[in-house]
Design goal:
- The chain is mostly helical.
- It folds into 2 domains: about 1-50; about 55-130, no CATH class.
- Helices cover about 75% and strands about 0% of the residues.
- The protein has helices at about 1-50, 55-70, 90-105, 110-120, 125-130.
- The longest helix is centred in the N-terminal third of the chain and has 50 residues, at about 1-50.
- It is elongated, with a radius of gyration of 28 Å.
């Protein structure tokens, strides 16, 4: 009798384990799908945000050009021009890797520009030009 009870309980527990294993697999799949959807929505949100910032980006690049020329900046007479062409690296790093992430986090233009200034002041070029 005890053996039969143990066999029935074991069978029920085995069925429960199999069911739980299946549920966990489904939850993992749903979690991965939700993560994909969330990432897609986040990308679309960024695209929507950037599509309305054309004028701001132009203002920022003009400001960055002036900062490059200034005595407080990189002291470049040609600003964002380097070797007779735009300084693409400077534009991409300061605008897309510093300025825009700060704006997308909710900071205003002045705060994001200050983040660019702070980052530029950490650059080797700025440090060389401002020694002493």
């Amino acid at each position: 009798m005890v053996t039969r009870i143990l066999a029935v309980v074991s069978a029920i527990l085995a069925a429960l384990v199999i069911h739980q294993y299946s549920q966990i697999g489904q939850l993992r799949a749903e979690g991965a799908l939700a993560e994909e959807r969330g990432a897609a929505r986040a990308r679309m949100s960024v695209v929507d945000s950037l599509s309305t910032q054309g004028e701001e980006i132009q203002r920022t690049m003009s400001w960055l050009n002036d900062f490059y020329k200034s005595p407080e900046g990189l002291k470049r007479a040609e600003g964002l021009w380097l070797h007779d062409r735009p300084d693409w690296e400077g534009l991409s790093v300061w605008v897309f890797s510093v300025y825009l992430p700060h704006r997308l986090k909710g900071e205003n233009e002045d705060q994001a520009r200050q983040a660019v200034v702070d980052a530029i002041k950490q650059s080797e070029e700025w440090q060389v030009k401002h020694r002493g």
